Automatic annotation (TrEMBL):
Pfam families: Phage_holin_4_2 (PF04020). The keyword Transmembrane helix applies. The keyword rRNA processing does not apply. This is Putative membrane protein.
């Protein structure tokens, strides 16, 4: 049940960010839910592999390279989902940072119950 609530909250954050950021577009609520699910799957499967493969660069940049990995995952999701569009690397980077902040806030509200 908690996973479904997190997906819905992530979809809400995606919709809000798509309205705020001019470089990010989501067609409708269904696309936002699909984006949330695809991002959850990519973060669970692909991100650990990328982190291990880029560990030396991540250590050299004191962890800042993880932002690039997050942006790459956003762009991969953009490639797979038809109703979701990110204009480039910069918008993917901004979107990933703001999405992390929004999710942290929304998930903290979920944990207070």
């Amino acid at each position: 049940m908690k996973f479904i609530l997190k997906i819905i909250l992530s979809a809400l954050a995606v919709m809000i960010l798509a309205e705020i950021l001019p470089g990010v577009m989501v067609v409708n609520y269904v696309s936002a839910i699909i984006v949330a699910v695809v991002l959850a799957v990519l973060n669970a499967v692909l991100k650990p592999i990328l982190v291990v493969l880029t560990l030396p660069v991540t250590i050299l940049t004191l962890g800042l390279f993880l932002l690039i990995i997050n942006a790459a995952i956003i762009l991969i999701a953009d490639h797979f989902i038809g109703g979701f569009n990110v204009s480039g690397w910069l918008w993917a980077l901004i979107f990933s940072v703001l999405l992390s902040i929004f999710q942290s806030i929304l998930y903290s509200l979920l944990n207070k119950e």
